[in-house]
Design brief:
Layout (H helix, E strand, L loop, with lengths): L4 E4 L2 E4 L19 E10 L2 E11 L5 E2 L2 H13 L11 E4 L2 E4 L3 H7 L8 E6 L2 E5 L1
Antiparallel strand pairs: 1-2, 3-4, 4-5, 6-7, 8-9
This protein binds zinc ion.
């Protein structure tokens, strides 16, 4: 198999030598069939645009071909949604721990110094901050 296997946020897909998505069973569940549809692509709850995709009739997994993935990447960057995920170190102030929110993320969230937010654990590995 020398077909390129591309990994994108929405899953895996195969392409033939002409760059076309091969019509076959879903790459995720391997049972459903793929149908071409226009789908809303959202990131962090913001609509990036409507793009042509192949959608599994069974599990609903969505696959974009490479050209469309590139278009989505460009549109995502234009909307300032690129790179919002970041690592941050936990600091300390008195008995409390502090987590910094970088400028890009605080701009996106319209979060300002002095605001009150609500925090709660979703589980032992996830902290939710409601603004
Ligand atoms: Zn499927």
């Amino acid at each position: 198999m020398d077909m390129p296997l591309l990994i994108k946020p929405n899953g895996l897909y195969h392409q033939n030598r002409n760059g076309e998505i091969m019509s076959e069973n879903c790459y995720m569940c391997e049972k459903g069939t793929l149908q071409r549809k226009n789908v809303d692509f959202k990131m962090y709850g913001e609509l990036v645009g409507v793009f042509s995709a192949q959608v599994c009739t069974l599990c609903g997994e969505t696959f974009f071909d490479e050209k469309i993935s590139q278009t989505i990447d460009i549109a995502t960057k234009k909307k300032g949604l690129w790179g919002l995920e970041a690592e941050t170190k936990v600091g300390k102030s008195g008995d409390s721990l502090m987590i910094r929110v970088n400028k890009q993320l605080s701009d996106f969230l319209k979060l300002h110094k002095g605001e009150t937010v609500k925090i709660r654990p979703e589980d032992k590995n996830k902290l939710i901050i409601e603004i």
